[in-house]
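About this split. The held-out portion is used to measure sequence recovery: a designer receives only the C-alpha cells and must propose an amino acid at every position. Recovery is the fraction of positions where the proposal matches the reference. Here is one held-out target exactly as it appears in the evaluation file.
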C-alpha cells in the first residue's frame, strides 16, 4: 500500500516571524494590498499583505486602559452626536489607507501629547501603518456606544473625546489567543485568528460583484435542467422574484444611488460637520427624477430605527459595566457586526437616515441579494436553495472561463465525468493541466468571527472534504480527479503518468467565501490535501476566491503571467505560501513592472447594468449627481 505523502509545514523561522507581528507588543491587522495602481518597482512593493498596528491608549498615554475605562468614556459622551462623528469617520476611512486622512483626523480629534509617530521599538517588526483611525476600531466603538443606550443628557464629546475613544477601542480590535504565548501557532490557529480582520478590511470589487450577481440571477430563468429541478423543489419562480420588495434592477439602482451619494460627501463635512451627513427619504435624490416610492420600500427593508438597533444589540437591556466587560472579553463579540451588516442604514432621528458603513451597503449589491432570497424561504427549503445557488455559481464560472478560453481554442473542458467522480472544469495547456472544482458556501457567523480553530477546521472539512452524509466535497474531489488525469480516465494531451514530457497538474478550488483569502487558510487546506494524495504526482492545492479568479484571468489572457508562474510563485516543494493568490499576482506584476488589468468581460456587464440604473434616475441622469 502506498504511503500518504509527508506534509512539510512552514519552517519555524517563517512562522515565528509572522507570529511576532501578530502577537507583538500591540494588536495588529493584516491588510490586503489593493491592485488599484500600477506597481512602481519590485523593490518598493511589500512581499506580503501590509501590516497595520493601530496605537492604543495605553501605549500613547503610558497608563493602562481596560474595557471598564472604555465603558466609562462612552457613558460620558452624547450618544447622537458621537454616532454622527463615528459614522463620518467610518465613511472617510472607506477611501483606504490614506495618510492625509489620518493626519486630518488626528489633528481634529487626538490630543497633541498622544500624536506619537511610532511606539514600536526599532528591534521589533515594523508595521506598514500606525493609523489610530481604522475601520475595525470605529465599528467596535460604534457598536459599544449603541449597546449602552441613548443618553441625551450626557456631555458632548467635544475636544479630544473621539480620539480618546478610538485609542481605547484599539486595545480590542484583534483577538487575544496569542497573548502570553511563547511558541509559534499552527497554520490553522493563524487562520482562525486572522480571518475576522481580513473579512472586515477587505472590501469586494463592486463592479465585479454586481456583474456576477446579475448574471447569476439571469441563470434562474434559464433552461439548465439542474436549475429547473431545484427551482421546483424550492418553489422559486424567477419572474416573481423580489429583493427588498423590489425588482432586481430597482433594488440595485437604489443601493447604488445611495452608495454614490455617500461617496460624494466632502471630507470637510465628514470631519467637521458630521451631523449634516444624515438624509431624508424625500431629499436624498432630489436632483434627479428617481421614484421616491422605490427608495421608501428599500429603506423599509434595509434600515433600522435607533431604539430597535439598540434593543437588538443589547437584547433590550443596555449594557452595564460588568456585562460590557464580560462581552469585551469574548473575541467573537469584538468582531461581530452582523447587526450593521443586515441593516446598514440607521434611522438616527425621525425620518433622518445615515449609512453606518459603506462596505456593508455595497454588500447589499451582491452577497445581500443571496441572503435576501435565502431568508425569504421557509427553513425546510433553504438547503435546496443553497444547492440551487451552488449550481448557478458553477454556471457563472463556466461562462467566465469560456469567455477567456472559447470552444475554438480546444483548451477548456467542463463537466467531465469519470469513474468515481466528475471534474467541474479543466484547462489543458499541454505541459500544464489546471483542474478546477467550484464550491459556493459561506462560513457561519460563529465560525468566521469566533477565532476558534476547532470550529473552523470542522467547518472546512465539512464544506471542502466530506459532508455529514459522507459525500466527497471539492478538495477530496480534486485529489480523485488528479488521479483520474494521471491514469488517463480523464483525457489530456500530456497529463497521463506515462506521457513524456509529463504535464504538471495544478488542482484549484474556487470558492465564494472571500474571507478564506486570509493568511494561512490555503496553507492549512493544502496540509490536509497532501494527506489525500496517495502516490499521485500533483502540485500543491491552490484556493482562490471567485473574485481572485475574475481578477487573474485578464493577466493570464494578456500574457502578463502564466498559470504555472502564478501558482509556483506560491509553492515551496509541497508547501503553499501563507498568503493569497491575490498577493501572488500583485508580487508578480510588481516584479515584471506590468500594469493592473481589469476584467473587461465583467466591466461590460456592469456597464449594461449601470445603463439601466441611469435610466431610473430620470432619463439617463447619472446618480452620482445626487
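Reference sequence for scoring:
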Amino acid at each position: 500500500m502506498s504511503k500518504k505523502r509527508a506534509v512539510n509545514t512552514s519552517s519555524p523561522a517563517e512562522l515565528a516571524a509572522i507570529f511576532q507581528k501578530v502577537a507583538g507588543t500591540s494588536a495588529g491587522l493584516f491588510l490586503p494590498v489593493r491592485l488599484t495602481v500600477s506597481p512602481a518597482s519590485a523593490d518598493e512593493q511589500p512581499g506580503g499583505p501590509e501590516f497595520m498596528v493601530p496605537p492604543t491608549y495605553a501605549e500613547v498615554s503610558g497608563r493602562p486602559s481596560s474595557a471598564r475605562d472604555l465603558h466609562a468614556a462612552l457613558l460620558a459622551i452624547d450618544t447622537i452626536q458621537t454616532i454622527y462623528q463615528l459614522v463620518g469617520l467610518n465613511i472617510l476611512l472607506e477611501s483606504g489607507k490614506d495618510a492625509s486622512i489620518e493626519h486630518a483626523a488626528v489633528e481634529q480629534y487626538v490630543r497633541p501629547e498622544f500624536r506619537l509617530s511610532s511606539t514600536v521599538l526599532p528591534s521589533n517588526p515594523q508595521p506598514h501603518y500606525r493609523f489610530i483611525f481604522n475601520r475595525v476600531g470605529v465599528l467596535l466603538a460604534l457598536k459599544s456606544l449603541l449597546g449602552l443606550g441613548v443618553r441625551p443628557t450626557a456631555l458632548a464629546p467635544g475636544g479630544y473625546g473621539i480620539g480618546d475613544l478610538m485609542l481605547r477601542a484599539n486595545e480590542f480590535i484583534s483577538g487575544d489567543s496569542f497573548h502570553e504565548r511563547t511558541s509559534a501557532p499552527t497554520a490553522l490557529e493563524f487562520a482562525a485568528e486572522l480571518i475576522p480582520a481580513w473579512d472586515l478590511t477587505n472590501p469586494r470589487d463592486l463592479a465585479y460583484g454586481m456583474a456576477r450577481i446579475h448574471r447569476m440571477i439571469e441563470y434562474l430563468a434559464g433552461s439548465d435542467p439542474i436549475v429547473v429541478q431545484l427551482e421546483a423543489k424550492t418553489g422559486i419562480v424567477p419572474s416573481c422574484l423580489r429583493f427588498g420588495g423590489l425588482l432586481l434592477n430597482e433594488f440595485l439602482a437604489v443601493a447604488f444611488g445611495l452608495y454614490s451619494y455617500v461617496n460624494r460627501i466632502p471630507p470637510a463635512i465628514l470631519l467637521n460637520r458630521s451631523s449634516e451627513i444624515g438624509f431624508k427619504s424625500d431629499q436624498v435624490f432630489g436632483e434627479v427624477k428617481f421614484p421616491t416610492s422605490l427608495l421608501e420600500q428599500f429603506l423599509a427593508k434595509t434600515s433600522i430605527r435607533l431604539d430597535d438597533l439598540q434593543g437588538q444589540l443589547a437584547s433590550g437591556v443596555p449594557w452595564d459595566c460588568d456585562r460590557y466587560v464580560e462581552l469585551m472579553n469574548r473575541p467573537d463579540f469584538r468582531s461581530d457586526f452582523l447587526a450593521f451588516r443586515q441593516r446598514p442604514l440607521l434611522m438616527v432621528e425621525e425620518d433622518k437616515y445615515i449609512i453606518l458603513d459603506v462596505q456593508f451597503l455595497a454588500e447589499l449589491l451582491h452577497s445581500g441579494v443571496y441572503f435576501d432570497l435565502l431568508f425569504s424561504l421557509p427553513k425546510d427549503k433553504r438547503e435546496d436553495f443553497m444547492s440551487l445557488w451552488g449550481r448557478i455559481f458553477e454556471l457563472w464560472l463556466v461562462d467566465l472561463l469560456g469567455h477567456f478560453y472559447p470552444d475554438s481554442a480546444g483548451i477548456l473542458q467542463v463537466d467531465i465525468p469519470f469513474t468515481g467522480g466528475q471534474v467541474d472544469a479543466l484547462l489543458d495547456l499541454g505541459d500544464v493541466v489546471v483542474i478546477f472544482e467550484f464550491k459556493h458556501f459561506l462560513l457561519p457567523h460563529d465560525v468566521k468571527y469566533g477565532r476558534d480553530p476547532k470550529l473552523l477546521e470542522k467547518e472546512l472539512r465539512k464544506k471542502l472534504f466530506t459532508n455529514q452524509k459522507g459525500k466527497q466535497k471539492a478538495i477530496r474531489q480534486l485529489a480523485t480527479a488528479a488521479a483520474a488525469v494521471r491514469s488517463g480516465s480523464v483525457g489530456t494531451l500530456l497529463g497521463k503518468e506515462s506521457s513524456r514530457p509529463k504535464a504538471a497538474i495544478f488542482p484549484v478550488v474556487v470558492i465564494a467565501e472571500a474571507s478564506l483569502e486570509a493568511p494561512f487558510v490555503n496553507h492549512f487546506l493544502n496540509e490536509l490535501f497532501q494527506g489525500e494524495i496517495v502516490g499521485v504526482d500533483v502540485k500543491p492545492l491552490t484556493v482562490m476566491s471567485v473574485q481572485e479568479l475574475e481578477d487573474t484571468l485578464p493577466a493570464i489572457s494578456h500574457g502578463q503571467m502564466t498559470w504555472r508562474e502564478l501558482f509556483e510563485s506560491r509553492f515551496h516543494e509541497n508547501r503553499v505560501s501563507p498568503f493569497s493568490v491575490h498577493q501572488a499576482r500583485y508580487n508578480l506584476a510588481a516584479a515584471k513592472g506590468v500594469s493592473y488589468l481589469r476584467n473587461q468581460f465583467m466591466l461590460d456587464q456592469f456597464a449594461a447594468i449601470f445603463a439601466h440604473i441611469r435610466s431610473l434616475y430620470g432619463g439617463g441622469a447619472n446618480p452620482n449627481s445626487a
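Annotator remark: Residues 548 and 582 are 6 Å apart (CA to CA).
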